[in-house]
Amino acid sequence: MLTLAGLIERHRFPDGYRRMFLAAVGAFSERGFHGTTTREIASRAGMSPAALYVHFGSKEEVLYRIASSALDLTLEVVSEAADPALPPSGRLQSVVRVLTAWHAYHSATARVVLHQLDALTPEHLTEVAAKQREVTRVVRRIIAEGVSTGEFAAADIAGAATATLSLCLDVARWYRPGDRRTPEEISALNADAALRIVGAR
Amino acid sequence: MLTLAGLIERHRFPDGYRRMFLAAVGAFSERGFHGTTTREIASRAGMSPAALYVHFGSKEEVLYRIASSALDLTLEVVSEAADPALPPSGRLQSVVRVLTAWHAYHSATARVVLHQLDALTPEHLTEVAAKQREVTRVVRRIIAEGVSTGEFAAADIAGAATATLSLCLDVARWYRPGDRRTPEEISALNADAALRIVGAR
DNA sequence: GTCTATACAGGGATAGAC
DNA sequence: GTCTATCCCTGTATAGAC
User: Fold this and answer.
1) A166 contacts on B by Cβ (under 8 Å)
2) Tell me, in Å, how far CA of B36 is from C1' of C13?
3) Number of domains, chain B
4) Above 90 in pLDDT, residue A12?
5) Which runs of consecutive H residues, i.e. helices, occur in chain B?
6) Which domain holds residue B39?
7) pLDDT tens, A125-173?
8) What is the pLDDT of residue B11?
C-alpha cells in the first residue's frame, strides 16, 4: 500500500521538510495541535525551532499540509479500491478493507485528521472538509448501487454509509501498532461486518 | 434519560462550580483542552478567571471531574439497560440504544471523554481509563452470553464488541444537536446494525 | 538552510481586597 | 465566594550570523 512517507517521497520535498512533517504528525497525534509546541516538533526532528519556519509559514500550515496530503492519499487509495469492474459487494469489501487498513497503519495521522482540524483557519478547514466528504460519497455511492441492483437490502442508505464509515474510522481511536490483531485481520472483520450492515444477500 | 446536568444537580455542587463545569465542557469540546484558556472558561461561565480556582485546583482537575462524572453516568445508564431479565439480543439492543443516544445527546461531553484524556495526569488517566474499560466489558459480556446460548453467531467476540462500540461511540464524532436524524432514530439504526454484526438469528 | 539569541504576546495560577 | 491586579513562565515567530 502507498504510505504517507511514500507520498512525501514522491513529492521530493527537502529533507528538513520531511523530518519536520513527520515529527509534527507524531507530536500532534500524541498531544494534539495546541498541546504541541513548535519547540517539541523541532526537537523530534533533531533541528532548531527556527528551522520549522524555513519550510512552513506557521504551525497551522504544518497541520494543514498533514491533513491535506493525508486525505489526498486516502482518496487515492479508496478510489483505486472502488474498482468499477467489481460488483457492489466486492467493491464495498475492497473499500472497507483499505479504509480500515489505512486507519490502522496510519492511526497517528488519522487521529490528527479526525480530531485536530478545528485548529485550521476557516479557509483551510473548508478545503480539507471537502476532501473528507469525498470519501463519504464514495462509500455512499457503492451502497446506493448495491441497493438499486437488489444486492443490498439496506433501508437507509445514508445511515448504512455512516455506520460503515464508523467501523473504519474508529479504528484510529483504539488501534495501536503492535496490537494483538493485525490490520489485515481487522480489515477482514470490518469488511464482513459492513456486508451484514447493508444486508448483502 | 439521566443527563449530565442532572448528575451535577444530584450532587448539589455550588452554583459557581456548575457554571464553570458546564462552560469547560463546551470549551473543551470545541477547542480541545490545550486550546482552551482558563480565561475562556471563566468568560463563558460569566465569572472572573480567579473564580475557577475557588472550585478546582487546576485546569487539569476540571477535565478530570468532567471525564470521571461523565463515565460514571455512562456506566450507570448502561448497567441499567443491561437488564438481566432480557435475553442477550434484547439486552444488546437496549445497551446499544442507550449508548448511542448518550453519545448523541451528550456529544460535546463525549468528544472530551474520547479525545482529551491524554491531558490528564497519569494517576487520573489510569482511573478514568478503568471506567472506560468497564463499558467495553458490559458489551463483551452480552455478546459472549448470546454466543454461548446460540442466539448469536459471532466467531470473534472481542471483534464484534469493538465493532459494536465503534458504531455507538463514533456518533459523538459526527452528530450535532439539530441533526436531520434524531438520537432515537440513530439508536434504532445502530441497534439493528449491532444485531446483524453479532449474527443474531 | 541551519543555527543562536531574543522579542513579545498569552496563559496558568496566586495575592489580597471586599 | 467573587473580584481586580499581577506574577512569571511558556510559546510562536523573527533577526541576523554563518
Assistant:
1) 166-167, 170-171, 173
2) 15
3) 1
4) no
5) 4-10, 15-31, 38-45, 52-55, 59-81, 88-105, 107-115, 122-148, 157-169, 171-174, 183-197
6) 4-197
7) 999 999 999 999 999 999 999 999 999 999 999 999 999 999 999 999 9
8) 77
